[in-house]
Specification:
Order of helices and strands: HHHHH
Shape: elongated
Number of strands: 0
Radius of gyration: 54 Å
Number of helices: 5
Length: 142
């Protein structure tokens, strides 16, 4: 009998025993002398499994108030942030358009200035003449 108990205990601790073998182990342990620790374990397990759970429900209930004002506050914050972001975006776009227009105006001025300087090259030939006598000769003024 003790040999069978030892075999069943080895299988139980190795987690290889079936339910029928565990039931046989319980009955053999109750009938045998010795094995006090194992008897206490199985008696404790059977005692715990037969007890009803003693759950107490809380007597005081805490009422959770709905936080509707938080929803409104979050909505207002999102709205204000969106409006502010849109105005900053529009301001940046206006600055970019103004910069583009100024640069186009500078490019037009540069183009017209270059054209004017090219037309003035004809006058460069006359800058070396000092007087009208050199132009028309000395015969006219005497």
């Amino acid at each position: 009998m003790n040999q069978r108990i030892d075999e069943l205990l080895d299988k139980y601790w190795a987690a290889e025993s079936s339910l029928a073998e565990e039931q046989e182990l319980k009955t053999l342990l109750q009938a045998s002398v010795g094995y006090e620790d194992e008897k206490a374990l199985f008696l404790g397990i059977s005692t715990l499994s037969s007890e009803e759970p003693n759950l107490k429900m809380p007597t005081k209930t805490i009422k959770i108030k709905p936080a509707n004002w938080m929803n409104w506050a979050a909505s207002v914050a999102i709205l204000i942030g969106s409006v502010w972001g849109w105005t900053v975006y529009e301001q940046k776009q206006a600055e970019q358009r103004a910069y583009t227009e100024v640069m186009q105006a500078f490019a037009l001025i540069q183009t017209n200035l270059s054209k004017g300087q090219e037309e003035m090259n004809v006058m460069n030939d006359l800058k070396y003449l000092n007087t009208t006598n050199q132009l028309f000769g000395n015969s006219i003024i005497k």
